[in-house]
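Can't attach files on this board, so I'm pasting raw text. These are the components:
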Amino acid sequence: EATSKVHIVYLGEKQHDDPKLITNSHHEMLADVVGSKELASQLMVYSYKHGFSGFAAKLTESQAHKLAELPGVVRVIPNSLHKLQ
Amino acid sequence: TTRSWDFLGLSSHSPVNALQSSSMGDGVIIGVFDTGVWPESKAFRDEGLGPIPSRWKGVCKSGKMFNAALHCSKKIIGARWYIDGFLAEYGKPLNASGDLEFLSSRDANGHGTHTASTAAGAFIPNVSYKGLGLGTVRGGAPRARLAIYKVCWNVHGGQCSSADMLKAFDEAIHDGVDVLSISIGSSIPLFSDTDERDGIATGSFHAVSKGITVVCGAANDGPSAQTVQNTAPWILTVAASTMDRSFPTPITLGNNKTFLGQATFRGKEIGFRGLVYPEAPGLDPNAAGVCQSLSLNVTLVAGKVVLCFTSMARRSAVASAAEAVQAAGGVGLIVAKNPSDVLYPCSGDFPCVEVDFEIGTRILFYIRSTRSPEVKLSDTKTIVGNPVLPKVAYFSSRGPNSIAPAILKPDITAPGVNILAATSPLDGFEDNGYAMHSGTSMATPHVSGIVALLKSLHPDWSPAAIKSALVTTALSNHPSSYPIFAEGSPQKPANPFDFGGGIANPNGAADPGLLYDMDTADYLHYLCVMGYSHSSISRLTGHPTQCHSVKQSILDINLPSITIPNLRKSITVTRTVTNVGAANSTYRAVIEAPFGTNVSIKPDVLVFRNQTKKMNFTVTVTATHQVNTGYYFGSLSWRDEVHVVKSPLSVRTEMLQPYISDN
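---
Top answer:
Structure tokens for the assembled complex are below.
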């Protein structure tokens, strides 16, 4: 299997205001793709739940593709670096 | 900042200006995404500040060498750090490649302390850099509060991952910041505005839609065209200029002729010493005198001053030449290069003075015509005020916008060259806790500070309204009416792709008269025009969004500027202005048409009465020639007795599709 890299799974504006529920839905979505809740917890880097909805997780290319095809996912995109100016 | 705020018209000695009328930004919360903060710096004293605003929901998080109870205050009201995205990608533990770093909001690099203190630092009198630029350092909004979001880590000069930045956006929106100051960029080619790899564009969309102004640097890839970054229309993108301050350094030759170079040399004057230019015999006698590849003969150079030439604009040529001359026992260096006002000292107070090619050539002619050439390098002086004209900085990234050329970028310009502000004691350039740095990073917090003052004065203004106020009141000419120049080769009068509306004029922006306002619907218009799908736009906004079936024009987005990249015959654009001045006022249009165009406005008089707050008008631009051209520039101003609401106008005629941009 290819190596895992951090990807951002962007879900757009949050659908409700309960951050706990939003985070749970992120974990469930990731668990559906990686096979278990435990593994999803290990792979999850961030849950974006206040200003918008989405999460960052360590994913293989094939996991990223699967997530991108799920309903509600706007885009799945690899992490990248920025620099001071 | 010992000069920049006076240059911008916000002197603390003046009883009437936007600084005073806004209570110095009291109550406004500025979030800073950067390398953290050095909380012990005097710049973050909280004396005289009232309680933390009750709407603040953020936290101060303790960590390595950062104790929330000790280091947060009524000035630094929030401190968080984000490294999980960076570590997940590059492995634990953090490898700072020999540089120090703290797993906390403490700033090892100095960049974050510099930017935060420039935006909202307290007044600290009698600060200088080794005696240069003496004055009071302070932030633009000295009574604003700071929320620190450390997203950049001291690895290879400062690296920031988009996953970490998005988390910072997520929490800053929740915490209740009013302004976000982000001196961070990516690299060309850019990611699209809805691509999270550009975490800044996506995060800032959500921030702006909640009323938070996001101020970002335009990047440092100038003076080449199409290098501006952070180009989304909802971002306030900042270019960098010099100010009315310079650091002349006398170079006296043995024939008693004195030239002025530039440096930050405050070491001991070395008296008259031998002067050499490393000329080699052979077909290319100048090859040995290239600064970045100096090959020096110790017996010829020891105890002398060396002259070298470089075509490199960046500082690396100066640094490597200084190293080579010092290693060979030389006592000073004169570098002839393209003019750039960015100055850094050479290590160990070694005198290295920059001159332009003309002065460098005259010094070379003196060396070649004299048996024992000599020179004296005197220490640097500080000059401020009218004789020094500001210029757009050489490094400041230039438009047009490479994602959407019809959206003018940068938006605005502020001082970003040789800015003296607080820094981390671990900063290699610090002197007693302060350092002079240059970059659009330094210009950005100047605008963030100004935005904080405007937010304090006009809490109900949207981010677009604040941008409009800044762009339409910016100065494109020096007060003496001389045009502002843009550094480059050669220098030229600056145009909107160099400085957007011009150099920020906070007192004008506090009372702009008219505003080109926008809300999320206008940004959706942009996203529709840019071809993003209905479904992705709907998810971005959280509600079903249908783009108009009749394709709208990107030119009709209600920006405070008009940029037409492809005029063939005639184009009509629409704009809406909101009156924020006197209820009864009459504005007349004044047009400065770009070369080769006719411009007409309908109506050309806008009459506002009590009930009428908003008015529409159209601008029709017609080409008078049938050739592909580069951009020509003009302006549209609405004037009443008090205000001049000036929009930059940039037009390129394009009869045939060009294979390369003639900008």
